[in-house]
Amino acid sequence: MSFINYSSREINCKIVYYGPGLCGKTTNLQYIYAKTNPEAKGKMISLATETERTLFFDFLPLSLGEIRGFKTRFHLYTVPGQVFYDASRKLILKGVDGVVFVADSQIERMEANLESMENLKVNLQEQGYDLKQIPYVVQYNKRDLPNAATVEELSRLLNAERVPEFQSIAATGWGVFDTLKAIAKLVLQELKKGR
Amino acid sequence: MVSPQMVMYEEEFNQISAICDRLCREANSKVVFLVDKNGQLIASAGETENLDTTSLASLTAGNIAATGGLAKLIGEREFSILFHEGEKDNLHISIVAGRVILVVIFDARSSLGLVRLRVKKSTLELTGIFERLLKKIEDPAAGSPFAEITDEDIDNLFSD
Ligand SMILES: Nc1nc2c(ncn2[C@@H]2O[C@H](COP(=O)(O)OP(=O)(O)O)[C@@H](O)[C@H]2O)c(=O)[nH]1
Ligand SMILES: [Mg+2]
């Protein structure tokens, strides 16, 4: 849930990167962190296991500039992808303003993508949100891999809603900022509606 | 259900900040801060210069969310107070008005007993302010400062 602070003239929004384990959510945030000016970002926090798998969440605060005298700040979170961390994923979705679904393009991971997307819908519903109504974009990651499914195939299976979709190679950063800009824009447009 | 959007106005912010300042002094603590349950910092007081308050806010909210999840699993509604003891500094975390988190950082110059006592008093006052604030936010006449922004304003943000 966005937080408008008239006193500090700030507007805070929460964006969650969702998707199956190892699809590249943490890599998205790492790239954004690496490419953002020091004055526009806070510390990136990763609550991870010893093998670098996300345990609870990654967190990255970002400033994107001013709109009408209000500083816009986005808090980016990732969820742990592994199936058994479902309780944590629900917690992180609380108060979300926008969702990026990161899909793993590899054909072998299609099952995992579908399962994760179903899980996203259920977890959002539990909190009274509807994926069809909140700002939401899809990213097809790992486009560099030879076993990647075609975008048409991914789109057909994972984007029945026809929301904005992006190809990416998070490992090199290709497509990462396009995705971020798209979701940030949708979130601001939603605020404009004054939900 | 979806909780209403959080909005902070100058008037309430000043009242809340004054209470945080006073609590920090009266509890002999180092830092006091208030965080929205979603992890956004609302106000802070004390020695915050060298403190990453944004990270603290996010982790505090994560902590409360996780312990809240634990509480539900064992049949409690939530744990309204958490206490973390360190070698030098300690953290006292409590929930105000059901949706904001009050954090007090203190060392040996204070004590858990004193902090608890002062937090109790401040919580009562903060609860009153937040209840008024939430009513104000829910008032449909309140309007959004963003109703006026244009698609162009939004595009300009990304024009580099
Ligand atoms: N080939 C390739 N590897 C990627 C890409 N994005 C991420 N990875 C790798 O996939 C692995 C899992 O990424 P991570 O971000 O930790 O996944 P998460 O579980 O979704 O957070 C890491 O080894 C990354 O380097 C990509 O676009 N292409
Ligand atoms: Mg991860």
Quick synopsis:
The complex is a heterodimer of chains A (195) and B (160). With 195 residues, chain A is of the alpha/beta class.
Low-confidence stretches of chain A: none
CATH architecture of chain B: 2-Layer Sandwich
- Number of spatially distinct domains of chain B: 1
Task: Give the bound compounds.
Answer: guanosine-5'-diphosphate, magnesium ion
Q: What overall form of chain B do the CA principal axes indicate?
A: globular
CATH topology of chain A: Rossmann fold
Give the total of beta strands of chain B.
6
Count of helical regions of chain B: 4
Proportion of residues in extended strands of chain B: 15-25%
**Roughly how many Å is the radius of gyration of chain B?**
17 Å
Task: Return the domain count of chain A.
Answer: 1
Low-confidence stretches of chain B: none
Largest beta sheet of chain B, briefly?
A: 5 strands, antiparallel
CATH C-level category of chain B: Alpha Beta
User: What is the rounded Rg of chain A?
Assistant: 16 Å
Tally of helical runs of chain A: 5
- Which whole number gives the mean pLDDT of chain A? 92
CATH architecture of chain A: 3-Layer(aba) Sandwich
Largest interface: A-B, 46 and 41 residues
Helix and strand topology:
The complex is a heterodimer of chains A (195) and B (160).
Chain A: E1 3-5, E2 10-18, H1 25-35, E3 45-48, E4 54-67, E5 70-78, H2 86-93, E6 98-104, H3 110-126, E7 136-141, H4 151-158, E8 165-167, H5 176-193
Parallel strand pairs in A: 2-5, 2-6, 6-7, 7-8
Antiparallel strand pairs in A: 1-2, 3-4, 4-5
Chain B: E1 6-8, H1 10-26, E2 31-36, E3 41-46, H2 53-73, E4 81-85, E5 90-96, E6 100-106, H3 112-138, H4 151-157
Antiparallel strand pairs in B: 2-3, 2-6, 4-5, 5-6
The complex binds guanosine-5'-diphosphate (GDP) and magnesium ion.
Guanosine-5'-diphosphate binds next to helix 1 of chain A.
Structure description:
With about 200 residues, chain A is of the alpha/beta class. Chain A has one domain (about 5-195): P-loop containing nucleotide triphosphate hydrolases (Rossmann fold, 3-Layer(aba) Sandwich), CATH 3.40.50.300. Chain A has helices at about 25-35, 85-95, 110-125, 150-160, 175-195; strands spanning about 5, 10-20, 45-50, 55-65, 70-80, 100-105, 135-140, 165. In chain A, strands 1, 2, 3, 4, 5, 6, 7 and 8 form an eight-stranded mixed β-sheet that branches. In chain A, β3 (about 45-50) and β4 (about 55-65) form a beta hairpin. The mean pLDDT of chain A is about 90. In chain B, about 45% of the residues lie in helices and about 20% in strands. In chain B, strands 3-2-6-5-4 form a five-stranded antiparallel β-sheet, with helices on both faces. The longest helix of chain B is centred in the C-terminal third of the chain and has 27 residues, at about 110-140. The relative contact order of chain B is 0.16. Chain B has a single domain, classed as Dynein light chain 2a, cytoplasmic (Beta-Lactamase). Chain B is α+β, with helices and mostly antiparallel strands and about 160 residues long. Chain B is globular. The interface between A and B is large, with 46 and 41 residues. β1 of chain A pairs parallel with β1 of chain B, so a sheet runs across the interface. The structure holds guanosine-5'-diphosphate (GDP) and magnesium ion.
